[in-house]
Amino acid sequence: MDCELPRAVIHGYLDGELDPVRAAEFERHLEECPECVTALESQESLRSSLHRAQLYEKAPPQLRQKVLAGMRPSEPISISSRRRPVIAQWLAVAAVLLLSLYSGWRLIPGLSEKNSQTALAAQIVDAHLRSLQPGHLTDVISTDQHTVKPWFDGKLDFSPPVQDFANDGFPLQGGRLDVVGGRTVAALVYGRRKHFVSVFIWPTTEKDEAARTGSQQGYNWINWRKNGMEFYAVTDAAAPDLTQLQALLSH
Questions:
Q1: 132 and 22 share one domain
Q2: Which CATH number goes with the domain that contains 192?
């Protein structure tokens, strides 16, 4: 039988983010759950591999020349022999910082549209994972859209569209407030068999856009824009289920 413990708990334990009580509970859980032990070992192995990889990129000779040229004084000055080692150390530090900046420009996600999409999707998946912890899934629990929609009044600067699709296999479970990209958004929760789907909604000035899909950490997501709203849905259910829900929400 598959363990139903949220993956966020495993990640939190590995990163030292759990409080002592939760950490002790998780360690007791490990004694009886081989699946979580395997998942934890896999994450630890991945982290070790990344540390051992020591990814870096050598700065081009032109960058070094520009840095050194910018550090040369406009007029000759005398430097005592005692200060030369200190200046050499600062030059080394400056070179390391510039190398880090150059490597970051080449490697840090978010510097292209594709990487920006990936980074936002990662935030969405993380928000969904947080919601799966006990007591975090919904702030308002109701299958009635006329109860869920008014609940958001006064809590957001926009009114999210709320619909129930129980007849189509996606019963409304409720809603909550969440945070994506530093702003508060609406999150609707739908059921799909034994799975939950979080649908994040916030206003946008961008034009309507067809659906884009992907996956992160074993969770499927779908993103689209419609009528001045940005939609992101994420779940561990099958990808076609998300496509079906997206079609329902877009009508």
A1: no
A2: 3.30.200.100
pTM for the predicted model, two decimal places: 0.56
At 112-155, the pLDDT tens digits run: 455 667 788 888 999 999 899 888 899 999 999 999 999 999 99
In a domain, 177, yes or no: yes
- Domain ranges, residue 202: 113-250
Query: Tens of pLDDT along 191-236?
Result: 999 999 999 999 999 999 999 999 988 899 999 999 999 999 999 9
Tokens of 108: 């840090």
